[in-house]
Automatic annotation (TrEMBL):
Keywords from the named record: Methyltransferase, RNA-binding, Transferase
Name of the protein this chain belongs to: THUMP domain-containing protein
Signal peptide: none
GO terms for MF: RNA binding; rRNA (guanine-N2-)-methyltransferase activity; rRNA (guanine-N7-)-methyltransferase activity
Upper classification of the organism: Bacteria, Pseudomonadati, Bacteroidota, Flavobacteriia, Flavobacteriales
PANTHER family given in the database record: RIBOSOMAL RNA LARGE SUBUNIT METHYLTRANSFERASE K/L (PTHR47313), RIBOSOMAL RNA LARGE SUBUNIT METHYLTRANSFERASE K_L (PTHR47313:SF1)
Stretches assigned to the THUMP domain: 46-157
Length: 385
């Protein structure tokens, strides 16, 4: 039996609850929420499973040592003392990144450099050989986290951020991060039991994440590589077994997922990405201007989208957000509409009262995920029933 060890899944602000729930459902133990992270424990197979199967995680870290630190020299000495030969060959390659929340140290790049020096010096002094730095495909990727005086050294099991799912070859001018898209869809309560629409679908991220959620497809099946595949204890048979067990839990989906965009270039990129994700059976992308469309049929519709914020696209924000409100009100009865925006002023022009507002961040921009419920007929009638 593989032994359990502690791990940390990093996520975006506002998704901690979602990630804790995902981890619990996958079978993690000792799940504890933090800020932008969730700690848990599991064995090596579960580490593979977490990387393949979590929608709202951006990294899975495996802490290997923790100590208090008082100066840069102290940090160097303690890292030098660690048994690095358990993780890396003398001729191997490494990369180091650091996050610092401390008055003692001000520069994360310098801390990463100091860590790298200690590891390289240790190998040179004990074996006469030294590992090299490789930022693209290192044998091990090391994460240094200093919180006040407490330092945790972890191995990064993911490598590239887990939002890089592997299906996206084409993006448009302001693409949404895949983890942010998945988290928004999950916060919106989408469960695959109704039609889904993204009326401003850009390169199709929201549509693809919605289809994967509806069909319970593991989000990171298409990734080219995880960092743990270069570790000394990499177990390809175990990995394939985990992959098969996740794939055996996929489910059928009996509704429609539709995407509109008024830019022909966005539509063709979205179609390419949908094809890469092998989800053409579930997703239909059309060249349409949302403001000139209306809902077809009287089935319940679930809508999640990421309208332009005016950050990178030059539009009249007041007019644009008023059009969103008018289109929803007049043309989309029986719809739950959710969208994210960092333009909090523009929200006032939608002309509808949101029934929910959730604080999130889109990259560094503070944003709100808002929900508008469009009732069938008038609201008054609904209350009288």
């Amino acid at each position: 039996m593989e032994e359990n060890f502690n791990m940390v899944a990093k996520t975006l602000f506002g998704f901690e609850e979602l990630l804790a729930k995902e981890l619990t459902q996958l079978g993690a133990q000792d799940v504890k929420k933090g800020v932008r992270n969730v700690a848990f424990s599991g064995d090596k197979g579960f580490m593979y499973k977490a990387n393949l199967g979590l929608r709202t995680a951006v990294k899975i870290l495996k802490p290997i040592h923790s100590f208090s630190v008082s100066s840069e020299q102290d940090l160097y000495n303690k890292i030098y003392k660690m048994s690095w030969e358990n993780y890396l060959k003398p001729t191997g390659t490494l990369a180091v990144d650091a996050t610092i929340h401390s008055n003692l140290f001000s520069h994360s790049l310098y801390i990463a450099q100091k860590t790298k020096d200690a590891i390289v010096d240790k190998f040179r002094d004990t074996t006469g050989q030294r590992p090299n730095v490789d930022l693209k495909f290192p044998d091990i990727k090391i994460n240094v986290h200093i919180d006040r005086r407490q330092c945790t050294i972890s191995l990064d099991s993911s490598g590239d951020s887990l939002h890089k799912r592997g299906y996206k070859t084409a993006t448009n001018i302001a693409p949404i991060n895949e983890v942010l898209a998945a988290g928004m869809i999950m916060l919106s309560g989408w469960d695959g039991q109704s039609d889904f629409m993204d009326p401003m679908c850009g390169s199709g991220t929201m549509l693809i994440e919605a289809a994967m959620i509806a069909c319970n497809i593991p989000p990171n099946l298409m990734r080219k590589e995880f960092a743990f595949e270069r570790w000394q204890d990499w177990d390809v048979d175990l990995f394939e077994k985990i992959e098969e067990s996740l794939l055996s839990k996929t489910r059928d989906f009996h509704h429609k997922i539709m995407g509109y965009d008024k830019a022909p270039s966005a539509v063709s990129k979205a179609k390419d990405n949908v094809k890469n994700a092998q989800l053409e059976d579930f997703i239909d992308v059309k060249h349409e201007d949302f403001f000139k469309t209306q809902k077809g049929g009287d089935k319940k519709l679930h809508m999640v989208f990421n309208p332009p914020y005016g950050e990178r696209l030059n539009i009249d924000m007041q007019e644009f957000y008023k059009n969103i409100g008018d289109t929803l009100k007049q043309n989309y009865p029986g719809t739950d509409a959710w969208f994210i925006t960092s333009n909090l002023d523009a929200l006032k022009h939608v002309g509808l009262r949101p029934s929910r507002k959730i604080q999130l961040f889109n990259a560094k921009l503070e944003a709100r995920l808002v929900k508008y419920v469009m009732y069938e007929g008038s609201k008054k009638v609904k209350y009288l029933k």
